[in-house]
Write a structure and sequence with these properties.
By secondary structure, the protein is mostly beta strands. It has a domain at about 420-505. It is built from 2 helices and 51 strands. The strands form 13 sheets. A 7-stranded antiparallel beta sheet has the order 35-36-37-38-39-40-41. The model is unreliable at about 1-50 (pLDDT under 50).
Amino acid sequence: MSRGRRYDDEPKLNMKKVFAVIIAIIVIIMFIFMIKGLLTKDTKTGKIISKSYFAVYKDDKWGVIDETGSNTIDPSYKEMIVIPNNKVGVFICTYDTNYETGEYKTKVLNEKNQEIFTDYSKVEAIQNKDVNDNLLYEQNVLKVQKDGKYGLINLTGKQVVSIEYDEITAISGIENSFKVKKDGKYGIVDSEGKIVIQPQYADIDVLGKDNKSGFIVKNDTGKYGIADYSNNPILEAKYDSVEKVYGNDLYLVTVSGKQKLVKKDGTDVLTSGFDTIKQILSSQENAVIFSKSGKYGIMNLSGETLIDAQYDSLEETKLGTFIAKKADKYGIINISKEEKIPFEYNSIVYNEKADIYVVEDANLNSNILNSNLETKVSGMLLELNTDKGFIKLRVDDNYKYYNFKFEEKQEVEIFPNRTLFLSKKDGKYGYVDKSGKVVVDYIYDDAIEQNDYGFSAVKKDGKWGSIDSNGAIVQEPTYNLDEYLLVDFIGRWHLGSDINMNYYNQL
C-alpha cells in the first residue's frame, strides 16, 4: 500500500518559506544598518546618541554641523542650507541664484557630502507655518520637479506622490497635507501619498485645524461650500464665502456681503445683531462670540445678547470661561459676566493639553493657574513642555521645575540622561553631577543648563562660551550675546540671533 506522496521521496525544503525567511533576515539587517546610520556613539561616555544636524554660518558662508559641533558640510554656500528634519542627513543647498529673476538651482547632499536625489531638476523643502505663524518645514517629504511637473518624495528618496501636478503647496498651519493643482483644478493629498480630494475644485482649503474637519471648496461658478474628508457634501456650494468658524453642525457663511450662521442643510440660525462671528461656543448656552463696531461680546442663537460687545478680544477656553482684553490689559470672565481674574495683565494664555493658564505681567513674570484659576506657582516662564509634562520657571535667578500637578521636581528627574546640573553658590554658577559632587567650580557669572547635546553655555566677565558634558571648556567665553533672546551652544558654535531660523554662528 502506498504511503502517499508525502513519503514517496526524501523530505524537501519548502523553498517559498526559505526565501521568505531569507528576505526577512535581509530586511532586519537593512533595518539595523539604517538605525546604526542614524545613531552615533559618544567616544567619551560610550553612550549611543541620535544624530542631529544644524545649519551654520561663518565668514558669510553656510554649512552644516552635527550635534558634536563637527563640520558635516564645510561652510561654502552663499544661501542658507535647509535641513527639513534635523534627525535625518538630508540637506538642501541652493546655488546659482538670480535675484533679479528669482531663478535658482538646488541640489541635495547627505551626511557624507554626497549628492543624492539627482533624478530631478529641482528638489525643495516645503515651507509651512505653525499656529504662532513661525516658519517651519515639512519634516517627512520633499517637493520634486521633473519635466515641469511636481510630486513628493520622502527623505529616503521614495516617491510618495506621482510627478503629475502643476503646483504643490503646504496648507498653512496644517502638517502633512498639501494642496495640489492639476489641469486648473485643486485637490488635497497627504504625505503618505493618499489622494484625499481629487483635483476637481476651482479652489480648496481646510475648514479646521486638520483635514479631518473637512474642506471649504469653491465650484466653477465661484460659490463656496463644505465637503468632508471623503468628499461628501456637508454644505451646498452656494455661498459667496465660507469662514473657518464652525461647531455643533453650524457654519458661518456670507451671502450678498452679509454674514449669517446656518445649519448644514442651509437653514438660517442667526442673521443679525452682529458684524461678524468669531467663535461658536462649546458650552451649553448654544451661543457665539460676535463682534460689533470692533468690540466683542456673546449672544445666544436666539439673538439675545448675553455679554455686551465691550471687549477688544474674547476667547472661550473652558466651559463658560473666557479670556478677555480691555484697555490693553487681559483678564478672565465667566458667562455670568463675573470678573474672575482682574484686567491687569499683559497676556493670558490657556494651554489646553496641560489644562493650565499662564498669566504674564509687564515685567515678564508669570503666574501659573490651574483649571480653577488658582495661582499655583510664579516666576519667569522659560518652558512649558507638554510632551514631557513639565513647567520650567526662573525664580530669583534659580531654575525650578514643576509637573502639571504643580509638584516641584529636580532637574535630574526631568532629564535623567544629563551629566551636569546647574548649581549656584555665593552668587556664582557651577555644575554638579547627579550625586551633587562639584564638577565645574563656581566661577561663572551666569550659566545655562546642559542642552540635549551635552553642552552648557557659561558667562564670565560679560562674555559667553561653552563647556562639554564632562565640564571641559570647549569655547572660552569670548562672545557678547547680551542682545540675544536665547543663548545656546553646539561645541564652539552659538545660536544665531534670529532663533526662528535656528542656525549657529562662529567667529
